[in-house]
Amino acid sequence: MSFSMPRNVPSFDNPQRQYENTAWGSSGRSRFPDSGNGYANGASEKIGGMFGTKGGLPMYKDKPYNYSASRRKPWFRRKRVLAGIGLSLLGLLYWLGILSPAGDVSRISGKGEKSTWNMFSRPQSRIDWDERRERVKNAFTLSWGAYEKYAWGYDEYHPISKDGRQMVPNGMGWIIVDALDTLMLMNLTTQINHARQWISTNLTYDQDHDVNTFETTIRMLGGLLSAHYLSTTFPDMAPIPGIQGSSGEDLYLEKASDLADRLMGAYDSESGVPYASVNLHTGKGIVSHQDGGASSTAEATSLQLEMKYLAKLTGEKNYWDKAEK
Q1: Are 180 and 138 in contact, with CB atoms under 8 Å apart?
Q2: Cβ contact 295:274 at 8 Å
Q3: 168: closest CA among 110, 210, 121?
Q4: What is the SS3 assignment for 47?
Q5: What is the pTM (predicted TM-score) of this model?
Q6: Region Disordered: start and end of each range (predicted)?
Q7: What is the rounded end-to-end Cα distance, in angstroms, of the chain?
Q8: What pLDDT, in 10s, does the model give residues 54-63?
Q9: DSSP string of 279-316?
Q10: Spatial contact of 41 and 6, defined as CB atoms under 8 Å apart
Q11: Cα gap 147→51, rounded to integer Å
């Protein structure tokens, strides 16, 4: 196969060549003397100005006579290298704990313990978890106190306007039931007694209104079962004299069973996958108002925990079978 020379090969004997060599000289000065009309130097300035005064690349593959072998900057003058070194140093300082707030132990614990660390681990400092726990508890009691004062028994609380709203005509105390286990874990005996009284005298599920199957199961049914578990398994947690932890403590379980019986209608579908909603009075399942009536698999498959635990407590196999199907 014959080889033909490309057409764009530079000409080295063209009279214009001397001006090109002048323009791309690394020193910026022509090796050809000025002819007197200033043309050589003028062309050099014009062409060089388009690409920078110094350090530009040659126009052709053959480098001018005074073009250095390498134009790469030393490693310590490259921005990427310097940036990488800087980030590495910052990461090392953070890893050693010098830039971490945990290093200031006296500010965190208030006890002045010294931080101990080595090159292979973050600083090991003592954190006052008791103090942090009290801060969380104080934040909760502040919010709970406002709810008790301005919207007790309502399903929703609006802290700015200081009022509440019911999600069903007579209300279901969503906030109260949902927070039962938290009240017990924080040992808030006064608040848990107030909540228990409301559940005993005011809470009823015989309401002609549809509710979301998933939300009602995880918040309402789950809240009652959690309260039953904590009050019977840990009787010293937020105890109510004569009631909490005794064999007669079945209020939460009774309410949970009544609610579960009303939720059973949601499982009466052809596939067994529960409907998205259910009417608490009629016990009839209702298809989703969106998505063409389809049920969310993420919601439906997470209902087994409450139903199966209730089956264990009551011995009613129906709850287990519905959820298992």
Answers
A1: no
A2: yes
A3: 210
A4: helix
A5: 0.61
A6: 1-38
A7: 76
A8: 555 555 445 4
A9: ETTT--EE--SSGGGPPPHHHHTT-HHHHHHHHHHH--
A10: no
A11: 71
